[in-house]
Amino acid sequence: MFRILESQAPAKQTATDTINTLSSRLQSATLLEDRRAAIQGLRSFSKTYPASVASGALRPLISCLRNDREDVDTIKVVLETLLMLFTPDENSPEASDEIALWLSDEFTQRQDNITALLDLLDTRDFYSRLYSLQLMFQISSARPERTQECILTAPLGIPRLVSALGDSREPVRNEALLLLIALTPASEEFQKLVAFENAFDLIFSLIEAEGALIHGSEVVEDCLALLANLLRLNISNQSYFRETGCVKRLAKLLADANQDQESEDQTLQWTFAHRDKNIWGLLVIIQLFLVKGGVNTPANQMAYWNHGVMEQVLSTAFGQRFNVNVTAKALATCADLIRANKPLQERFGDVEVVWGPQEANNAAANGTMEVKQTQPINVIEALLKLTLEPAPISLLDARLAACECVKAFFANHSGIRVHVLGRAIQGHVSGEDQIPNILSVLLTSPESRGNADPYQTWMAAVLMYQLLWENPEAKEIAMGVTEGDAEQGEEVVTCIQTIVGNLITGLQRGDDERITLGYLMLLCGWLYEEPDAVNDFLGEGSSIQSLLQEVKHRGISNVLVPGLCTILLGIIYEFSSKDSPIPRKTLHKLILDQLGREQYIDRITRFREAPLVRDFEVLPQTVGAQSDGGLPEIYFDRAFIEFLKDNFSRLTRAIDREPELEISIITNGVERGVSRELVDTLRAEIEEKGSVVQKLEEDLLALQSKFEQEQAEHRKTRDSTAVESTKSQQVTESLKRSHEKDIAALKEQQKRDQNELSRKHEEQIRACEKRLKETAADYERQLYHAKKHHDGEAADLRKYIRSLETDLARVRDQHVGEIAKLKATIQKLSSEAEKIKGQHVAEVLDLNSTIQSLQSGLESNKEQHTAEMSELHKTAGKLQSELELNKQKHASELSDLNKTIEELRSQLEASKEKHAELSAQSETISTLQSEIDAQKGKHAEELEKHATSLSELQKTVEDLQSGSGANTEKHAHEVSGLNDTIQTLKLDIDKIKQQHKAEIAEHETTKHGLQSELKSTIEKSTHDLQSARDDSSDKHAALEKRIENAESEVEQAKAEAQKTAAALEAVRKELEKARSEASEKEEARQAAQSELEDLLIVFGDLEAKRNQDKQRLKDLGQEVSEAEDEDEDDDEEEDEEDE
Asked: Which segments constitute the Vesicle tethering protein Uso1/P115-like head domain (predicted)?
């Protein structure tokens, strides 16, 4: 029986079939309740079958967000379903990371989808705001860039998100905070728009409401994360933050955190972790403003200093209330606040701090606070104390940060460097320092200090390295420090020799590598480009042997110490000289014999490729990142690593430089170091040049004797030339006298000709003036007649215009009377129409009574009478409607007539300026009156036809319709005739205007003709005058030509005298040429010597430029092959051997 029932039961439905059914129901349902039920069914499958639900119902669900926005319950279910699709069950067979990407792509492909989610933020419903923010967070997690673009494009997208931070409901506010954190890390434009929506003020208010830094938990951490996103590398937001007073609020938060007003018992221990995280996050935000080398960094440093942030950060660092990470971060922030800012560095040295926490008790007497504290000390002393005093390894991060703060104090400030070094030397010599001294720690022997805290010596070496690096003055001061009293018979040992002795002793004792590497870093920085320091080092010859033995006998696995020892040997050889305690040639031979070139390069290369050196920039230099129980792998200082990578190529090639070629170094304007072989070569060249000069002097004496002989011959030639010159002067004077007589005669002739020409010219001018006066008189007479004729025509026109104006006024009066008559006629017609309407109403009433009487008399034929009655009723209704229609047509015709009259009135007023239209318009008005009267008679006849009988009503209506159409056509024809008449009047007025313009043009042509005649007369007289002047100028030119011929004869005599002088000048030039050849040889000798000096300078500049280019390539992230450097060195050696 059960089997039969099972066979008859319907097929079992799968989850996929159910999802498809619900999806189709959601798409096709028209009622809101049906759609909501389908969505609830889909929600139950979303966690387990996300792919199936999304493939069939995602787009309908998104459509519901836009279409059913007003229904809160439906929107809630839709949002819950979509959120479940983003977070399916882990055990679901359809769970995959690609589903979230697919869903996000579907949302972000259309701008309307994100806009719909943003629109839900405008409602006050809790779940709509909460779920929409959560959904946008899921979309942003999968497709952040596209989500940012959609929100930026949406109207009021960012203001809606930021306003959600002010929601009083914590879940909504927290979700908005998380969404903004996810959207703001990368887009600078998005950060700016969020910041300018008053986000900074909202964030600070939220932090204060959540208990500030001391009592705040995850919400405060999220607020600080959002604040960091908005400020990181965004100069605009940083300026806006600084200008809107947010720095003051930030300082207040830090000050409140430093005021420990609650006792340890009242403060829960679990809140300390959140407190330390919050303070650490705030310090990170401060550091975002203090980027090294940033454009706004100096302004940000000054703003934080002026608002007291430095004092609060120092209080946090030295208060000992927070963990080591917070202390280290506070000290690193202090370093960033003063780094590379000279005014703040100088002011920082005068700051005092209190070491340890402050215990405050409130006094009831005067309301003040009694503070029990230790004696304040200078901040630099406190930092040195924290840095150099032995401490547990757990405090190493704080010690490293304090060391960075001290380095920032004197970074790029030579004055502070010298002061700090002098203070360290003074304290070391006196031995009265209460805190550890940098120099004392370095010069302490390994037996005395022990090996318990290797970082004490390492940090002292790092600080000393920073003080001496690229500071020749500080290096010179440090080299003056000595140990031992020579007067008492003690051996005097310099500071460098003491440090080298401690280094070698530590190597032999097996001290920690950090101590050894610290000493080696310091010596490398001190000896680099400092030949005096190198000579001081070489004063103890056994040091070189000890370093060579250390490099040779260390195993291959040990890379750091041998490699740095090799680098130090390379620096010593590079900057040694022939006069060093160990000569440069001996040192070169010693290195090659005991170490070899290949071993030297291999040691340095392996040191450079060691992970601690190669990856220094990416390795964390803190204890927290290396929690293996032992000492952290912190071996080098950042500045030393930068120096090593910048000069690696030079240090590698140092062994290849010939011993005879010393490095030229300029320190404080003094050049040190030069090749002695080059000096000897130059001396030999000078001796050779001296012999050449002596030979040239002998040649010069021979030339001088020859010159004296030529000078005597020149005196003889000059005397003969003087005699000839006197003769030529006498001839010239005679020619000059005859020439003056000719000139006088020519001047008299020219004067006579000029008088005659002036007389003729005056007569011509008088004749021209006479003709000009006659022409002017004729022109004035013609102009007078033309003006008189024009005035007469103008008077006639004015009379004609006045007559037209009178006629127009008369016509206007007539028109007003006619319009009054028309109005009376219209009123009469309307009254007659009312009468006709009353008659029609009476006739209809009579007809109804007749129908009723007929109905009572014909009851026997009820059916027939009923049909007739219905037909009569229809006919009566039709007739009545036609009558109403006819009445409306009559009213419309009357309104058209009124409009026509108004148009005619406007046209009559416009005819003031059209003088010829008045008579035509009066005729038109009379014809209009007659047409109106005729039309009135026609309407009366039509109304009489309506009253004839009821049987002919239909026919009468049709006649009225046809008659009204004919009247309309006739009226339109009359209006067109009136317009034609107006146009003809306009044409007549235009013709009159054109005639007047033609007359004016004729007067103008007459005027121009008279002016052209006058101009031609003047030009003719001018031409006659110019021809007379040309004749006189020709005669004057002939006279000037005769004068020039006489002058040329004088010039020929002078030329013969100049030839004689030129011969003397040629002799003088040959003498000068001999002298110049002697001087050129001397200059060639000097040029050869200067070229040799220039070559040395050029080689040094090329080497420095090459190192800079390689450093620039490294900064850009490109790799520089060391093999290329070796190949280039080999090529250079081969070239030198070929030469």
From this structure: 341-655
Whose tokens are 């050779």? That residue is 688
Amino acid code (one letter) for 349: G
Residue 935 confidence class, pLDDT cut points 50, 70, 90: low
Task: Please name the residue that has the structure tokens 């097996």.
Answer: 510
Tell me the three-class secondary structure of 157-193, residue by residue. HHHHHHHHHHCCCHHHHHHHHHHHHHHCCCCHHHHHH
Helix (H, G, I), strand (E, B) or coil at 263: coil
Report residue 672: phi and psi, to 5°.
-130, 135
Picking from 174, 273, 271, the residue whose alpha carbon sits closest to that of residue 226 is 174
Please tell me the distance from the alpha carbon of residue 891 to that of residue 569, in angstroms, as a whole number: 123
- Report the SS3 class of residue 638: helix
Q: What φ, ψ does residue 585 adopt, rounded to 5°?
A: -65, -40
Cα–Cα nearest to 760, from 1013, 1015, 1032, 1016: 1032
Directed axis angle between helix 560-574 and helix 597-609, to 10°?
Answer: 120
**205 CA to centre of own chain:** 32
How many residues belong to the chain? 1139
**Interval 896-917 mean pLDDT:** 56
**Contact predicate 1003/786, CB 8 Å:** yes
Whether residue 128 has pLDDT greater than 60:
yes
- The answer to whether the CB of 514 falls within 8 A of the CB of 458 is yes
Q: Which domains are seen in the chain, by residue range?
A: 198-258+271-353 (1.25.10.10), 413-623+632-659 (1.25.10.10)
When comparing pLDDT for 962 and 968, which is higher? 962
Neighbours of 940 (CB within 10 A): 13
Residue type, 204: F
Tokens representing residue 153 in the block: 């494009």
Q: Any bridge partners for residue 494, and if so which?
A: 482
Cα distance between residue 313 and residue 254, in whole Å? 8
Tokens found for residue 493 = 């040992």
237 burial level (CB within 10 Å; 0-12, 13-18, 19+): buried
Q: What is the dihedral of CA 1009, 1015, 1016, 1020, to 10 degrees?
A: 160
For 578-609, the DSSP string reads TTSSS-HHHHHHHHHHHT-HHHHHHHHHHHHH
Q: Which two tokens stand for residue 55?
A: 């493939």
Q: Among candidates 382, 381, 384, which has minimal Cα distance to 441?
A: 384
What's the angle, vertex CA 1111, arms to CA 1108 and CA 1117, rounded to 5?
A: 145
Q: What is the amino acid identity at position 503?
A: L
Percent of the chain with pLDDT over 70: 68
Position of tokens 């007497």? 365
Using CA atoms, how far apart are residues 523 and 517, in angstroms rounded to an integer? 10
